[in-house]
Design brief:
- InterPro entries: SET_dom_sf, SETD3_SETD6_MTase.
- This is Rubisco LSMT substrate-binding domain-containing protein.
- Keywords: Signal.
- GO terms for molecular function: protein-lysine N-methyltransferase activity.
- By secondary structure, the chain is α+β, with helices and mostly antiparallel strands.
- It has two domains: about 5-110 and about 345-450 and about 510-520, no CATH class; about 120-345, no CATH class.
- About 50% of the residues lie in helices and about 10% in strands.
- It is built from 20 helices and eleven strands.
- It has helices at about 10-20, 25-45, 90-100, 110-120, 125-130, 135-155, 165-170, 185-195, 205-215, 215-225, 235-245, 250-265, 275-285, 335-340, 365-375, 400-410, 420-425, 435-455, 460-470, 480-520; strands spanning about 5, 55-60, 65-75, 235, 265-270, 290-295, 310, 350-355, 375-385, 390-395, 395-400.
- Strands 1-9-10-11 form a four-stranded antiparallel β-sheet. Strands 2-3-8 form a three-stranded antiparallel β-sheet.
- Strand 9 and strand 10 form a beta hairpin.
- Helix 5 crosses helix 6 (about 135-155).
- The longest helix is centred in the C-terminal third of the chain and has 42 residues, at about 480-520.
- The radius of gyration is 25 Å and the shape is globular.
Length: about 525
């Protein structure tokens, strides 16, 4: 169960608190709650920080035994960083793994691997120092890649390749593959195939711009470092074959497929379409099983920009790819939206759930009472265990699942604009919750996030940098300047895709809110 906690207290509940806990004001109540969490955090050796989203919820298992779950925003996990050098602290992650195994979520996320990456982040500065002045092709690529991840996307749990990944990259940048197929020739064949397909297409100029950014095979090693798009999908079965154990029995694979379908739908989002196109092209040594095409935007919406999409007919094995770009990372809503411009419905990775074992799970009696009586919570109610359908409630009003999911996403923000009390006020401005209020809050929040993203690194700023470089004499002869300009162009394309995806996310999620409201006739 995941429960979002709001700090709104009605007058009668304040009166109850005054009698039982000698709390006279809401501020005193919040201070009391924070102190209780601090006590709890001492038990489980987690440093507590005052931020929205950290809370506990008391739940009952099948045997009606009471259990306390600590829900921690995904972003908060990074605060474990300076506590993880002591091996004794890994007990916490064993607890998490145990809980997730019980929930059947081990195939979605590997927390310990992420924590190891976090612990090794201090190597980043060493990498940049050694590689920034190097003339080696691989070093130059890794420097660009790490710089992009660290300073553009700000992916705190990325930015580190293990030895196997580094060796694989060195292998795939060779002109010739082990099967004697020339990689550079293959790359040129793929790009030529795309050009021929859209030779007479009305969107040909967009494809030309896209291909120009890719440049030559050598420039492609820079382009591939940018996570360019999340507006593409591959079949669920393909994703499971990539992520899963190929030796698993069919029944177990079907069970995993059902769980993934509940979370991600029948398709999952894939990285970089041209890279996957290349990977699938090599599968049959020159025979492509990818169908790639351009959309014309979404009819009936403000989304008019064309974007790439594709389908794959077959899967490939990990380690057999032409290029390797998949790295461990979480898929929290805020990260997906800020970095790729989209959100996922039913995203279970927005929170980590820590089950606190006896005696550590026992909060004091007052806190348990507060969690069940004072807090106004979102509740997931399993209406049909066989089909895992859920009903979402806020202050006894039913709300739509996309909006529930979106508010979970808002709950991990520190910015005062995302204050959940303000959300509650907006939702209840008419004395009740309606889909119109949901939509208003939703759009306002996305607008704030989009403005935040645009402030961080604007397309106009990048275009100015490119313009200056293009006017620099000898830029194409100077390897460093040429790569710098290509990197900027890649970032421009990335920003454009992200902003387009942001608009698509707003359109998709708001339509889901509206559609579910009408279908359920809740409002």
């Amino acid at each position: 169960m995941i429960c979002l906690v709001f700090m709104t207290v009605s007058l009668n509940l304040i009166g109850t608190l005054q009698k039982e806990l000698q709390i006279k004001t809401i501020d005193e109540y919040q201070e009391y709650f924070n102190n209780q969490i601090k006590k709890l955090s001492d038990y489980i050796e987690v440093r507590y920080q005052l931020e929205k989203g950290l809370h506990t919820v008391v739940v009952k298992d099948i045997d009606q035994e009471q259990e306390t779950i600590l829900n921690v925003p995904a972003r908060f996990v990074s605060s474990f960083y300076d506590h993880m050098h002591d091996n004794s602290k890994w007990e916490l992650f064993e607890i998490v793994r145990e809980v997730w195994e019980q929930q059947g979520r081990t195939e979605i996320f590997e927390l310990q691997g992420i924590m190891i990456a976090l612990l090794q982040q201090d190597l980043y500065n060493k990498y940049v120092k050694n590689w920034s002045n190097s003339t080696n092709e691989d070093d130059i690529f890794m420097w660009h890649y790490l710089t992009y991840l660290k300073h553009v996307l700000i992916l705190d749990d990325l930015g580190l390749w293990n030895e196997e990944q580094t060796l694989f990259y060195q292998q795939v940048t060779l002109d010739r593959m082990e099967d004697d197929l020339n990689r550079k020739q293959l790359f040129n064949e793929i790009t030529q195939q795309l050009r021929e397909r859209y030779r007479d297409d009305e969107n040909k100029h967009k494809l030309d711009d896209f291909m120009q950014t890719m440049g030559s095979f050598e420039d492609f090693t820079i382009w591939m470092s940018a996570v360019c798009s999340r507006s593409h999908s591959i079949q669920l079965e393909v994703y499971l074959e990539i992520k899963g154990d190929q030796k698993e029995d069919q029944k177990l694979r079907e069970e995993k497929a059902q769980k993934f379908e509940q979370i991600f739908g029948i398709h999952v989002l894939a990285l970089q379409p041209i890279l996957d196109l290349t990977n699938h092209y090599t599968k049959e040594l020159g025979k492509s099983d990818i169908d790639i095409y351009l959309t014309d935007g979404i009819k009936g919406s403000t989304i008019k920009d064309s974007y790439f999409t594709y389908t794959a007919d077959s899967a490939f094995q990990v380690g057999e790819e032409f290029v390797y770009t998949y790295m461990s990372h979480d898929q929290t809503q805020i990260k997906l939206f800020k970095h790729y411009g989209m959100v996922l419905s039913n995203n279970v990775d927005s929170y980590y759930e820590f089950s606190i074992n006896d005696p550590k799970r026992q909060l004091n009696k007052e806190l348990s009472q507060l969690c069940s009586s004072t807090f106004e919570c979102f509740e997931e109610v399993n209406l049909d265990k066989q089909h895992l359908s859920y009903k979402f409630r806020l202050n006894l009003y039913d709300i739509s699942q996309p909006f529930y999911n979106f508010l979970r996403f808002l709950n991990i923000q520190q910015d005062p604009n995302y204050d959940l009390q303000n959300v509650i006020t907006s939702l209840n401005k008419d004395g009740f919750i309606s889909y119109e209020n949901e939509q208003i809050v939703f759009l306002q929040a996305f607008q704030i996030l989009q403005q935040e993203y645009e402030r961080r690194l604007t397309i106009e700023e990048l275009n100015q940098r490119v313009m200056i470089l293009e006017q620099t004499q000898g830029v194409w002869q100077n390897d460093s300047l040429r790569r710098q300009m290509l990197t900027y162009k890649v970032l421009i394309q990335t920003q454009q895709v992200i902003l387009t995806n942001m608009n698509l996310a707003v359109y998709y999620e708001t339509q889901m809110i509206l559609r579910q409201a009408i279908e359920s006739q809740v409002y």
